[in-house]
């Protein structure tokens, strides 16, 4: 027998043994996989395959192995009696249960996952109708677990660097859950319980804890899906998540050093709240839109990332302009409708009487698109009042109207394709800016967000997503414009130009609505703020109604434009912006003009190179400053100035505030009117001056900046003219620092009442507190380290032959100190308002002179200069004290000031 024959016989023998073993009957009480429970419980004789037994198996049939208890159930069993919605990921519902159907072909395929906030609690940054985060994501199956994974698009690479980038920078797991069914036999898809989404994917518990310092968690048992929707490119689930905290801690017996925020005030029980989230799964376009590189000479939101494809480029950062995909139906036509217009759905919650103004603000942008060959590029549609669909899904760009207990802003965010910067969705959220209800919000007794820093913090709580600040189009324009409008209406009503309930007042409000809508729509078209646009219109042109009606009061609706209020006796003009400006046309041209690929780079460069033309100056939020490390060194880049001479505008604002106060004091209140009307008008004037004071201070040590490319014919930085800096100091000294600017009749102040129906009513108005609010913002800026350092560096930016007239740090400190303490030389009484200002000046001296780090580094020379002037002031206080003759209040103030300053100068300091 050959070796081969031996092997064959052995194989046959083994096969025979295996056949006998496989034919053995199953053990009693077990059933093949897929058999019914009854079969498992049948007696052994019935299952033994005995002749004549019902269902007897052939001796040649192999028994199936035991069922795997962890295996998913058959698709048909899970899907039985469900209602199905076909879409990108089909949605199946049965009672309260919801499943997503995931085709295996869609595993590891990217899509856009977004979260919008449909309902909230109405306070402290938690508001309805807000766009939440967006991320490129994909489904990943690991065994019988399905993962929703956010892809890392901040770092990218092609070619050989792709694998290294993927290994270096991790994705993030957003949610995961067990696979709920076996594959569908034909569709090769499986089901997953959508309840995996009913978790804190938005990270709201952390934001709640930051706002209220209470640990909130998602209560999965009381969270549910309210509605679902699906189509070929979209699957949307509206979830209502219940957040709770077990208990509210008792208040501390002793007040803590840092104030503790109160628990939520707008909910019936602060331990419990519901928030609505719209989870969108949206297909990315099959073909990514062509990208367009951003240019810093004008402002667009961008999709930004680090490109690690190679190490040749010194700067690996890439910035693509955010824009909608806009293509002509007829590429050869000079003016053509687009293949797909940009459609904005107006929320059914917008009051009917304001809808025409909202629509006008949307459609105004068609003027800019017509200039580059698109007809009806932007379309406005009204959501029917009986509509049962939510325009917060990812397929409807919308204008959403919402309310809150402490809210007053508008926001224009969008969601984009991270591959290209293509805007796929946008939901403009606007608080109640559609009436003069802003008055109640602006009044000093209503809690409000008070500074740009706090507003930025609120944005971080409610709107920033997982991708770093890419589209943080947070905007206080609606709120601040409400402040501006209240001031304007106060003056115009006091003059008798507008009656509170007249057609003129209604037209005034409608114009304001259109203005704010134009601004926010501009954000969702991809445009950032431009805080230099108001420079394009001269002070003379602002008085010319024919000019302002035709061209507006600014070169851009993307600026924060103040109301154009004439001085008493001047002719009426256009109060606010009514149309697009030159900058808006330019920015739209750069982002949306159809360009042949081979000519695009040269043509974009040509468009951007127009930046020095009239009306095309550009500056963004960082240029204007007021938050983080940005203090705003350019006095022409501002929020809420007007005209080509901002300093002249601030002087005009002081005159308007004083006119308002004079008229309010002369007016006799009427029975039945708002009890807070008088005090609100008074404080509205102070609000205007507080903003002016801060911006006037920017002139001192200021630098004009021009955005351009290296090698431009003009300088990128230029010091503010010395005469202008001295003029700003003079205005502060004689205007905002003068007690005479804030004189009120005792009869008027004693007539100011409060709302006695409100339990948490406001107290009386403190004029010294209101004046301090105006003065201290300027004082803080003039004595800041940044201002001092720039003043010391100004000579470096001026040719040596022109340095003689440059303003010095010594001059600024000397002028400031002598104006604040001018009474010491004249021997005059020191008014209480002036005593407050002098006290605050000394406190700032103390802070600068006793802080160890102040005497080192770049501020060291400024420290020495401050100390020199403090020593001079000490001598002047001694001389004033020796002269005597003043009132006891003035003598006490001089003695206290001298003692404080002497202690500061004698204090030992640790120099590091």
TrEMBL record:
Q: Where is this region: Disordered?
A: 44-78
> Pfam families annotated for this entry?
DUF4953, DUF5117, DUF5118
Q: Identify the keywords attached in UniProt to this record, alphabetized.
A: Hydrolase, Metalloprotease, Protease, Signal
Q: List, alphabetically, the CDD domains matched.
A: ZnMc_MMP_like_2
This entry's Gene Ontology molecular function terms read: metallopeptidase activity
Query: What residues does the EcxA zinc-binding domain cover?
Result: 503-825
| Listed Low complexity bias regions | 44-65
Which superkingdom is the protein from? Bacteria
Ranges of residues in domain DUF5117: 132-329
Q: Which Gene3D superfamilies match?
A: Collagenase (Catalytic Domain)
SUPFAM superfamilies the UniProt entry points to: Metalloproteases ('zincins'), catalytic domain
Give the InterPro entries listed for this entry: DUF5117, DUF5118, EcxA_zinc-bd, MetalloPept_cat_dom_sf, Zn_MMP-like_bac
Extent of the signal sequence: 1-23
Any idea where the DUF5118 domain is?
72-118
Q: Which PANTHER family match?
A: PEPTIDASE M1A AND M12B, ZINC DEPENDENT METALLOPROTEASE DOMAIN LIPOPROTEIN
What name goes with this protein? Zinc-dependent metalloprotease
Q: Which organism is it from?
A: Roseateles amylovorans
């Amino acid at each position: 027998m050959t070796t081969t024959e031996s092997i064959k016989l052995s194989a046959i023998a083994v096969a025979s043994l295996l056949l006998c073993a496989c034919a053995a009957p199953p053990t009693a009480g077990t059933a093949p996989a897929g058999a019914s429970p009854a079969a498992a419980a049948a007696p052994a004789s019935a299952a033994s395959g005995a002749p004549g037994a019902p269902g007897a198996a052939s001796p040649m049939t192999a028994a199936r192995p035991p069922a795997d208890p962890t295996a998913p159930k058959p698709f048909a069993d899970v899907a039985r009696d469900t209602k199905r919605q076909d879409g990108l990921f089909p949605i199946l519902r049965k009672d309260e249960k919801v499943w997503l159907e995931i085709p295996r072909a869609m595993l590891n395929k990217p899509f856009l996952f977004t979260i919008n906030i449909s309902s909230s609690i109405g306070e402290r940054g938690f508001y309805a109708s807000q766009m939440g985060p967006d991320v490129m994501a994909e489904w990943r199956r690991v065994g019988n677990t399905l993962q929703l994974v956010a892809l890392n698009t901040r770092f990218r690479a092609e070619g050989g660097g792709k694998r290294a980038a993927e290994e270096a920078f991790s994705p993030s797991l957003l949610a995961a859950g067990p696979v709920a069914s076996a594959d569908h036999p034909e569709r090769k898809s499986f089901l997953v319980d959508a309840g995996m989404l009913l978790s804190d994917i938005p990270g709201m518990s952390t934001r709640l804890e930051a706002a209220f310092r209470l640990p909130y968690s998602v209560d999965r048992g009381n969270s549910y899906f309210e509605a679902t929707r699906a189509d070929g490119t979209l699957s949307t689930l509206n979830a209502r998540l219940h957040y709770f905290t077990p208990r509210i801690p008792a208040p501390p017996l002793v007040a803590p050093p840092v104030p503790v925020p109160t628990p939520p005030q707008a909910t019936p029980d602060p331990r419990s709240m519901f928030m609505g989230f719209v989870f969108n799964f949206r297909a990315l376009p099959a073909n990514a839109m062509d990208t367009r590189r951003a240019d810093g000479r004008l402002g667009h939101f961008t999709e930004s990332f680090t490109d690690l494809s190679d190490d040749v480029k010194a700067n690996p950062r890439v910035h693509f302009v955010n824009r909608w995909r806009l293509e002509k139906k007829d590429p050869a036509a000079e003016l053509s409708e687009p293949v797909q217009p940009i459609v904005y759905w107006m929320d059914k919650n917008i009051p009917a009487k304001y809808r025409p103004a909202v629509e006008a603000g949307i459609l105004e942008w068609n003027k800019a698109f017509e200039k580059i060959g698109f007809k009806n590029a932007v379309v406005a549609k009204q959501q029917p009042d009986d509509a049962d669909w939510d325009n917060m899904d990812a397929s409807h760009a919308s204008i959403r109207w919402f309310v809150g207990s402490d809210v007053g802003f508008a926001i224009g965010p969008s969601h984009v394709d991270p591959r290209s910067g293509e805007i796929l969705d946008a939901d403009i959220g606007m608080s109640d800016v559609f009436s003069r209800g802003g008055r109640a919000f602006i009044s000093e007794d209503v809690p409000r967000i008070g500074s740009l820093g706090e507003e930025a913090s609120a944005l971080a709580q409610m709107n920033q997503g997982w991708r770093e600040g890419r589209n943080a189009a947070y905007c206080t324009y609606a709120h601040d414009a409400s402040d501006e409008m209240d001031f304007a209406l106060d003056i115009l009503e006091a003059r008798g130009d507008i009656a509170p309930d007249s057609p003129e007042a209604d037209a005034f409000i409608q114009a304001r609505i259109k203005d704010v809508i134009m601004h926010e729509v501009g954000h969702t078209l991809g445009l950032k703020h431009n805080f230099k646009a108001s420079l394009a219109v001269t002070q003379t042109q602002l008085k010319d109604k024919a000019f302002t009606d035709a061209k507006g009061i600014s070169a851009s609706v993307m600026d924060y434009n103040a109301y154009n209020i004439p001085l008493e006796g001047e002719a009426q003009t256009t109060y606010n912006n009514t149309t697009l400006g030159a900058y808006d046309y330019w920015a739209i041209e750069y982002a949306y003009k159809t360009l042949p690929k081979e000519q695009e780079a040269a043509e974009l460069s040509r468009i951007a190179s127009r930046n020095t033309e009239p009306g095309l100056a550009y500056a963004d939020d960082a240029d204007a400053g007021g938050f983080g490390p940005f203090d705003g060194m350019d006095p022409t880049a501002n929020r809420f100035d007007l005209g080509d001479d901002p300093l002249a505008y601030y002087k005009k604002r002081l005159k308007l505030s004083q006119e308002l106060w004079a008229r309010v004091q002369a007016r006799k209140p009427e029975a039945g009117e708002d009890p807070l009307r008088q005090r609100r008008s008074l404080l509205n004037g102070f609000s205007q001056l507080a903003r002016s004071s801060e911006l006037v201070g920017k002139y001192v040590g200021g630098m004009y900046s021009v955005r351009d490319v290296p090698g431009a014919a003009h300088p990128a930085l230029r010091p503010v003219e010395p005469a202008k800096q001295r003029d700003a100091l003079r205005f502060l000294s004689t205007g905002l620092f003068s007690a005479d600017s804030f004189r009120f009749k005792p009869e008027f102040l004693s007539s100011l009442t409060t709302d006695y129906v409100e339990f948490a009513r406001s107290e009386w108005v403190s004029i010294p507190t209101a004046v301090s609010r105006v003065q201290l913002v300027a004082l803080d800026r003039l004595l800041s380290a940044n201002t001092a350092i720039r003043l010391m560096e100004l000579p470096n930016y001026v040719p040596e032959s022109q340095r003689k007239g440059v303003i010095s740090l010594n001059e600024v400190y000397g002028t400031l100190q002598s104006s604040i303490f001018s009474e010491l030389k004249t021997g005059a009484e020191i008014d209480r308002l002036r005593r407050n200002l002098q006290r605050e000046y000394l406190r700032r001296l103390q802070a600068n002179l006793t802080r160890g780090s102040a005497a080192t580094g770049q501020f060291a020379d400024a420290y020495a200069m401050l100390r020199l002037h403090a020593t001079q002031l000490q001598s002047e206080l001694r001389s004033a004290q020796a002269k005597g003759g003043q009132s006891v209040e003035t003598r006490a103030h001089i003695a206290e000031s001298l003692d404080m300053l002497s202690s500061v100068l004698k204090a030992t300091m640790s120099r590091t």
